[in-house]
Amino acid sequence: MTLDGFGQMIAAIDPQARRYANAGRGAYTVWREYGRIGAWAGGENEGGWRVQVDRYTREENDAVAAAIASALEESDEIAFEHTVDSELEDGGVLIRHIFDCEVW
After folding, report:
1. Using an 8 Å Cβ cutoff, are 37 and 50 in contact?
2. Phi-psi region at 26: left, alpha or beta (left = phi > 0; alpha = psi -120 to 50)
3. Contact call for residues 55 and 68 (beta carbons, < 8 A)
4. Which H or E run includes 6?
5. What is the pLDDT of residues 20-70, one digit of tens each?
6. Which of 34, 28, 39 has its CA nearest to residue 100?
7. Alpha-carbon separation of residue 49 from 4, 73, 78, 99 (angstroms)
8. Which three-class secondary structure state does DSSP give residue 65?
């Protein structure tokens, strides 16, 4: 899967998702690649990408976070780990779903 293909998959789930940064408040999605996976063949890196998707929400059972997890789980080109963090913001709890992916 290419990075463009990965971005299209995320955008199909959340059309407001942005690469690198998002000025959203409340519930929004950001994704970015942060490194290559080395797999050399014929003198070229044929490896995949390390990509992180962050879903920020105030909903404990966020439908977009669940849809992202489901899409990643269904793909045979993506391995991922899903962790959840939270912090207080503007008098409420902001939940951060972190999807750390290896995209091949």
Report:
1. yes
2. left
3. yes
4. helix 3-13
5. 998 877 799 999 999 988 877 777 767 889 999 999 999 999 999 999 999
6. 34
7. 12, 17, 10, 13
8. helix
Question: Quick one: how far is CA 84 from the chain centroid?
Answer: 12
* Three-class secondary structure of residue 36 per DSSP: strand
In the chain, % helix, strand, coil (3-state, to 5) comes to 20, 45, 30
* pTM score of the predicted model: 0.91
DSSP category for residue 38: P
Taking each helix axis from N to C terminus, what angle separates 63-74 and 3-13, rounded to the nearest 10 degrees? 140
Residue 48: C-alpha distances to residues 59, 87, 100, 103 (Å) = 32, 32, 13, 5
